[in-house]
Amino acid sequence: MILHHFPGGIHPHDEKELTAHLPIEDAPIPSRVFIPLSQHIGPPAEPIVKPGDPVRVGDKIAEARGFVSANIHASVTGTVRAIRPYPHASGRLAPAIEIESEGEDQVYVPTKDRQDPLSLPPQTLIPFIREAGIVGMGGATFPTHVKLSPPEDKSIHTLIINGVECEPYLTADHRLMLEHTRDIIEGIMYIRYILNASFSFVAIEINKPDAIRMMQNNISDPHIRVISLPKRYPQGAEKQLIKTILGQEVPSGGGLPMDVGAVVQNVGTTFAIYEAIRWGKPLIERITTVTGRGIKTPKNLRVRIGTPVRDIIALCGGWKEVPGKLILGGPMMGINQYDDAVPVTKGTSGVLLLPREEVGEYHPHTCVRCGRCVTVCPMGLLPNFLGVFSEHARFADAERLHLLDCIECGSCTYVCPAKRPLVQMIRYAKGEVLRRRKKVARQ
Amino acid sequence: MLPELISLTGIGFIASIGLGIAAKRLAIKEDPRIEKILEALPGANCGACGYAGCSAFARAVLAEEAPVDGCLAGGVSTGLKVAEVLGKKVEKTERMVAVVACQGTGTYTRQRFIYQGIDNCRAAVNIGGGSKACAYGCLGLGSCQQVCPFGAITIKDALAVIDTEACVGCGICVDECPRDIIHLVPRKVSVQVLCSSQETGKNVRDFCDIGCIGCKRCEQACPFNAITVKNNLAVIDPGKCTACGICVDVCPQQTLKALLPITRQAEIDPGKCISCGKCKRVCPFEAIFGSKGAPYEILTGKCRGCGLCINQCEADAITMTEVL
Amino acid sequence: MKETLILSSSPHIKSPETIPSIMFQVCLALLPAVFVGIYSFGARAAWIILLSILSTLFFEAAAQKIMGRPIAIRDGSACVTAILLALNLPPTVPWWLVVIGSFFAIIIGKQIYGGLGHNPFNPALVGRVVLLISFPAQMTLWAFPSHPLFSTVTDTLSGATPLGWAKTHLITHGAIPATLPFNIQQLFIGQTGGCIGEISALALLIGAGYLLWRKIIPWIIPVSFIATTFFITGVFWMINPHQYLNPVYHLFSGGLLLGAFFMATDMVTNPVTNLGMLLFGIGCGLLTAVIRLFGGYPEGVSFAILLMNATTPLLDRWTRPRVFGEVSNS
What is the value of pTM for the model shown? Predict the structure, then answer.
């Protein structure tokens, strides 16, 4: 089929060879888990347990607050020890439920066995997803039941399953597609059914030929097609993915995929949806790639939500070299951490350890107008000017140059020879623009 | 030579007449008071008043949207001049200054990681929550310094320091600080708690040598109940504080500081003094001497202007004077 | 955590390209032309290049020190300016001219604006044009190569550049003769006279090819620049071959290749958008052709590029690319 082109993009070395061949390993049950109440877009969940309560793996321990929010479940069997501020991936402390794991029966036993979910009315499937607390597991953590409930006037004709995994180093989705192929395909059928989408595409980057073959061989439904896409970052970004496959651009300035009749779902989320609808299993664990040349033994792990990153690093042999950066997520958009007590959450697709020698010094230069950032921006922006405006507090000028359309993919900062921290400058400018808007609204 | 001289001079002459006519004919009819107000203003267009510039402020004052003494850069004298133009009266307003409630320099605190990024506190606070070990403390990257229109803020050893003389109390830095640790306080309340941490004392000691540990010694020492410890942090009630400075003396962490020299002094009127000695007994600073039979006297070097003696005096013989 | 980690905003990996690496590669790409220049014109050319480098480094360091900025001569940009300036000079220039040129290039062309990234005009061209206008005699005193590349012929030309020769001949004789004292092959290899760096089209193309392959320079600017010049000079040549020189001669002589590949592509002074770069190149080509064909100077590349540098901010503003998802309001 004809693939369309999105502007820009970069080609960093994908580093997948560190972990792409490693089958998923089950991480041992941690002695303590710290499950944050906020692992999703929207208000934090409200706890429904208190210290001292016994919990079983899979029990709901916090209730979603409002529609755009998600439930939280216990990922281990044990006793609630505290509900207190705890290190969070955002760098600040945030309330988390601390559970001490006790007992042998840590395996989740399914509470349901729905043999034929497609025989139920499609609207009845959404509450199963909501109950299970499923959020976008590609990293965005948007509550899935909201995404799958578009307003009446937005009809969805295409479902795109995002198996692109364009971030370097990460191979969690890759292994998932190889090892749980049928479950994912089943999940795709459920989502298609819920949305009543005529077509479904599974988008996989061409650097995963075994996953492409595996998915293709197991799909019998003619309405689901596997598409292999050329390797380019950020091919897996929602807007760029839709452009490539459908040739349509999500409108700038607040547009959403449903505005062009599409919904994009990550393969990890699709797998979780399958487990929730078929077996009633809530989101209590996920696949995370522990990688980087800073870790002794890279692995693809199935970890329980709330496991401290410290435990995972120890499990993989610890730091191999002088520590440089600890990142949750991928190297392009992941969040830097300083405290390895931080827990794994629903959106943690990777734990990346970069040795000190791979982290450069910080000596940014003035912009030399080389234009490389303009060439690579997948949104067609002018990052060099956005950076200079941010530096000089010219926020109105930046807004006029579509500052708010930036998806913060990092391509501009990656190529900049002056080593300017463009994404940080753009993020700062965005914050100031929104702050000024609020001030004006108040007056 | 001559023709060129004449023609150029002639052109210049005609042009200047033309401009003069245009200036008169095309002038926008404006309230003449705006011009007078603008003359009274410093003309720095600093924005401290909250308006886009001096003209915008002048218009707002005329439209009665802005207070007559709203120009903080010009201070009291400008307020009086503007009031004069409008024929209004100015109430004497409280002069405010900004204070950074933190003393966490690099010497007293630690960094919990190496920060690589732009020198802007509002941006840096989003990276790992800020690199200073104290989650409440000043980041010291200078966002406040950059926005201060009067150059009253400097960064010394990773800490923002405000020059109280140069500060006019405009409040722009208060808005800018991402940790919200800059506060506007009345100038005369000169004792401040220079810490914002709500951590327990044990935790504070881990990351700062000069932070408030919530020991409550200040609370116990204050004769006016003006200082209390809330959420592990000392808080001064400006309505009750007399700036005597006892709390500053007893604080083990040097967190409390007197920002301005003591300005008030007690004075005993020898004609009214009945030599009862109550003032001498109650004075915490041993600043009153005397004995029965003769009027008591204040040792001005030791008097802190706290006013306890005034409360005690049965003969109303003691008054407080401003020394400054 | 015992060791202190480093934290920054995303992304956490960066491409290895730096400003010094770009400048170094530009210098590398200029080496073939430098080599041909030194080989052809002898030690004198080598001294000019060396003096240019030393004086630009000196002026840049001195300016940065006086202005209180960190000394940054290690970023290599002054070196690139030095080599380009030297390559734009005739091999006969006196030493003081080189120093004056460096001064104007670095101080007036770059440092007074705030240093690298702030200058609106190409520094090497600023230096060259100042010299051209102030010292026209020294700047047009040509010499024939003492060791022309791959050739032993030494008596064909007085040393004037082909374009200069053609223009003078046009003025004195009213027309360009059918047979010229130089041929295309000589121009291409570098067996004719001219500035130190512009005599060999081959050497320049080798360097340019390297920069295009490594994506150091955008192809849009040199291609549109050269194509436009070729087209316009070609049209006029077709109209009247006796008044106008064959466009292929225009292509390979003078500073067109040096200007189009190495000077118009100076990243600080050209637009950042694709459409902007196209218009920039076309404008340079147009002005070059007009000055060469109708102007008093035989060579127009330097002026053309400087004039287009002045339009760069405007081009940037007018050619903002369409934002992804932008719905244009008609």
Answer: 0.90
